[in-house]
Amino acid sequence: KYNLMSSENRLRADPYLYNWSRNLRFSSDVALVPDNMDQLRKIVTDPQYSCLKVIGTRHCFNFIADTYQNKPIGKKNAHISLEKFTDATVSREGPFPTIKMQPGLTFSKLIEVVDSHGLAIENLPSLPHLNVVGSLLTATHGSGHKFKILVDNIEEFEMMFANGQVKSFQKGKSPYFKHYLLTFGGIGIITSVTLRLEEGFNVSKSIFQ
Ligand SMILES: Cc1cc2nc3c(=O)[nH]c(=O)nc-3n(C[C@H](O)[C@H](O)[C@H](O)COP(=O)(O)OP(=O)(O)OC[C@H]3O[C@@H](n4cnc5c(N)ncnc54)[C@H](O)[C@@H]3O)c2cc1C
């Protein structure tokens, strides 16, 4: 059903239309990389597109990040990368510190920003170069059975819907808060998340050989 790549073709692949290891080819016609919210809204409301899907760092092992193959005649499917959306603001107001960040950040960048404020995120997945939002939406976990999955750190998020409108959701206030999150990008586009932070701490690592 899907186009599994030969190693020769992988080298020529448009990186946005393939998963990270380039063995899976998504079914979109085009990949788009908007610079800002206005451009993103124009893409989302453009009638030439039938199905749109945002990609993070394309590390899913399956096709959940894909658009549908079937589309009406004359329409296109497109993938959108938000890698240029990298603003992040740390706040110490409120009961605990937070970071409000756009969806282009990887965990490496997130750690760099929060560490510069003497802060930390509770837990992390194994790879630092994963996109934060893509990981949150797929229930990515860190290490240790006492910790919840990373999406539990979200206090607030903003989502752009198919009509281009952006709505804000707050933990404990907005109904169906979590129902909008663990949807693999199928309901709307996350345009910002606010994560709960902790005071910075060190972790010791031992390697036994
Ligand atoms: C080598 C490797 C190591 C891994 N290690 C771990 C680990 O330690 N712990 C763990 O739990 N998992 C781990 N994973 C799994 C990984 O965390 C998930 O596959 C995660 O989804 C990767 O994020 P991504 O942005 O690369 O995913 P993508 O495939 O790019 O996206 C994931 C989903 O999120 C959606 N999405 C992305 N951004 C947005 C947005 N802004 N708005 C709406 N939808 C969006 C996409 O449409 C897609 O459905 C690992 C995977 C690999 C390949």
Automatic annotation (TrEMBL):
SUPFAM superfamilies, sorted: FAD-binding/transporter-associated domain-like (SSF56176)
Superkingdom in the source lineage: Eukaryota
One Pfam short name: FAD_binding_4
InterPro entries: FAD-bd_PCMH (IPR016166), FAD-bd_PCMH-like_sf (IPR036318), FAD-bd_PCMH_sub1 (IPR016167), FAD-bd_PCMH_sub2 (IPR016169), FAD_lactone_oxidase-like (IPR010031), Oxid_FAD_bind_N (IPR006094)
Residue ranges occupied by any FAD-binding PCMH-type domain in the UniProt entry: 24-200
GO MF annotations in UniProt: FAD binding; L-gulono-1,4-lactone dehydrogenase activity; oxidoreductase activity, acting on the CH-OH group of donors, oxygen as acceptor
Gene3D superfamilies noted in UniProt: 3.30.465.10, Uridine Diphospho-n-acetylenolpyruvylglucosamine Reductase, domain 2
PROSITE patterns: FAD_PCMH (PS51387)
Protein name: FAD-binding PCMH-type domain-containing protein
Organism name: Strombidium inclinatum
